[in-house]
């Protein structure tokens, strides 16, 4: 994170704060995705990520651990993007979940 006070930097800081969930497993998925992929997403996927992090931890856990997928197609898409990112990057912690 940098000290930029632009609206984009403020949004990024807010997203980072809301991505820290208190569940280690969720932190290992959401924070790297935010840091490495969020900026490359189109506006619809960025909006889906912002909406996703407002969900309850237990729902996020079930979805991100691939126990079930969200019914909403937009939500399902962003969850799959996060899971695919974790599975295809050098994230040893994710492999141990």
From TrEMBL:
Gene3D superfamilies documented for this protein: Flavinator of succinate dehydrogenase (1.10.150.250)
Keyword set, alphabetical order: Chaperone, Cytoplasm
Compartment(s): Cytoplasm
InterPro entries: SDH, SDH_sf, SdhE_FAD_assembly_factor
Superkingdom of the source species: Bacteria
UniProt record similarity statement: Belongs to the SdhE FAD assembly factor family.
The protein's name in its UniProt record: FAD assembly factor SdhE
Species, as recorded: Halomonas saccharevitans
């Amino acid at each position: 994170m940098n000290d930029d006070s632009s609206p984009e930097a403020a949004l990024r800081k807010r997203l980072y704060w809301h991505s820290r969930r208190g569940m280690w497993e969720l932190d290992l998925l959401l924070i790297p995705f935010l840091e490495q992929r969020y900026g490359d997403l189109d506006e619809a996927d960025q909006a889906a990520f912002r909406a996703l992090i407002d969900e309850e931890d237990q729902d996020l856990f079930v979805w991100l651990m691939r126990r079930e997928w969200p019914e909403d197609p937009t939500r399902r898409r962003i969850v799959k993007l996060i899971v695919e990112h974790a599975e295809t990057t050098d994230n040893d912690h994710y492999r141990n979940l």
